[in-house]
Sequence to fold (440 residues):
Amino acid sequence: MKEIKFVLNGKEVSVKADPLKRLLDVLREDKKMTGVKEGCGEGECGACAVLKDGVLVNSCMIPLGAAEGSEIITPEGIRDTEKGKCIIDAFGTAGAVQCGFCTPGMMMATDALLTQNKKPSVDEIREALSGNLCRCTGYDLIVKGVQIASERGKDLW
Amino acid sequence: MVDSYRPKDLKDALRIRGEYGSTPLAGGTDLMVRYQSWAGTLPLFTNSVMFVGHLHELKYIKKIENSLEVGGTATLSMVADHPDTPRVLRDAVLSIAAPALRNNATLTGNICNASPAGDSVCALYALDALIRLEKNGSSRELPVVEFITGPGRTLLGKDELVTAITIPLKNSSIDNFTKVGTRRANALSKLSFTGIADYKNGRIDSIALTFGAVGPTVVRSVELEKKLLGLSRAELKAGKESILSDYSTVIVPIDDQRSTAVYRKKVALNLLDKFINEVADYE
Fold:
């Protein structure tokens, strides 16, 4: 057990845990940030995606010790921001949400994409979401959702 | 439960590695899967772990004269984004997993995992890349081809760390990296191929041909490549069948969960056939 500090959704936090504990488990269990989901647990489905120092990563593959001192943003951290609301509304308009399990990860990937590229093409959207699996297979609607977020949010990113 | 260390800099990391022989963990994208346990429980590492992903001294890519030097903790995304990265390596790296994984995984990790299906490794073999290993007080550099000795096996000493990968930059006119997998993203290779070639005065001046996931390591035969040096376009075309038959003796894949030996061999030779045509028809 070790006391490990990092910044979570803008606030400095400290967690007492084994440094090898997965960031995913720290977020869900210690910090009750259940927007982060566990799908595959091996970096293939993107349900556990968070931003680490501004880039999209899978929290199931990151031991807590590797996140020490970094800035982590979970779906809870963008949900109530202008960008977050824009993505949520756009996904709603497009009908991009079916069971909803992949949605938080899809939102994180969308935010990461629009931060780098305000007006992505369909191919660029598909590439950016390629690490996020939707078991309901509603991909076309999710891509549409990202397009709508990109149009409506052109002044946000 | 095992111990873990978080060195403050490279010097500290080399000391810890020398003292405890801890497993270096940079991105963790292979290690966390290999030692994965049930959800909510600790991964089952058997050796102590040293976090190295945060070591900024090693998180760089820079062009030095005619080489590209990739720091030991540089991520695959950094490699893909660098303007001087050779095209075959960029294509290979972009064929690995998906953005979130590439943002975290390192080139060093893909090499040290030493999988015959490691996509970057197939390109690095063809590019004559070198790997630099450091320990407290000394360093050595060796070709990646020699560094990897078998599936999951390398020459990395228990007290050594990979600090850089050096890729000689040679403006080759013809190059190709192809990965064959079940789907575009997030699939491990059934097989992969890299070809690089160049002419001088109408004759082949340099050629490198490598095949991934068709043997215990990535396959490259310098002897067979030597037979191609000096050939004209017409000679290359005329000799294609014999080249393919030579290569069919060094491409010896196995059946596993991802593909079959028959499929792998057939497709590997088809990709070679296609590349030879491309080289013979160049200009």
Summary: The CA atoms of residues 253 and 262 of chain B lie 8 Å apart. The domain at 174-280 of chain B is CATH 3.30.390.50 (Enolase-like; domain 1). The mean pLDDT of chain B is 97.
